[in-house]
Amino acid sequence: MGRPRKALLDRRRIGRTALELVDETGDFTVPEVARRLGVQTASVYHHVDGRAGVIELLREQVVDELDAGTLDERPWDVALEAWARSYRAAFAAHPRSISMLMTSPVRAPRVIDQYERVAGLLLDAGFAPEAVMPIITGLDNIVLGSALDMSAPEVMWVVGGEAEAPRLAAAQAATGPARADQAFDLTLAGFLDHCRGLLVRDRTAAATDGREAGGPRS
């Protein structure tokens, strides 16, 4: 038998096609994915569990563009900053996917694995367990908000006509063309500084608890 003219349907092709549709229109439907792939809708459902399953394949496509190797760097704050910058670049390439992915629970194993590594990085550094998810969520908010900002118009505040705001206009003019990058750098630096303060607090609390648990020495 000759080779088929089209590659066999697989999960990666489904995810890639859904991401292409979202990049183009901001959304997708499973029938649209099937039409673009040249297959029946039922064939797509054979590989995924409905729309939610396609969203997770789409999520994997975006996250595969991250450099997970940054999480091997040390110390923890160097690794976290490098990962955040790679994370931002990956989502800045697909800004229309952000609202969809932010409102859908994360289930994709390859994505969960990266967050597991981030959690391990923070716990190994000495952060208290109850601090880990707020840090991860806060970093998500910074990165994804900035990725959206990168797709926004460079001039976001249109001053003139009935809107008299000379100081805002002067500040905007002085900023130059890298407003989104400067804002991200500022916010990420402040976030990491705050996390370093949390780590000092958590380490101090752990040391105090350890001394109290040991009791007085005779």
Automatic annotation (TrEMBL):
The entry's keywords: DNA-binding, Transcription, Transcription regulation
InterPro entries: Homeodomain-like_sf, HTH-type_TetR-like_transc_reg, HTH_TetR, Repressor_TetR_C, Tet_transcr_reg_TetR-rel_C_sf
Example GO molecular function: DNA-binding transcription factor activity
Any single GO BP term: negative regulation of DNA-templated transcription
Domain HTH tetR-type: 8-66
DNA-binding region: 29-48
Keyword Flavoprotein: no
Domain of life assignment: Bacteria
Protein name in UniProt: TetR/AcrR family transcriptional regulator C-terminal domain-containing protein
Organism, as annotated: Streptomyces griseicoloratus
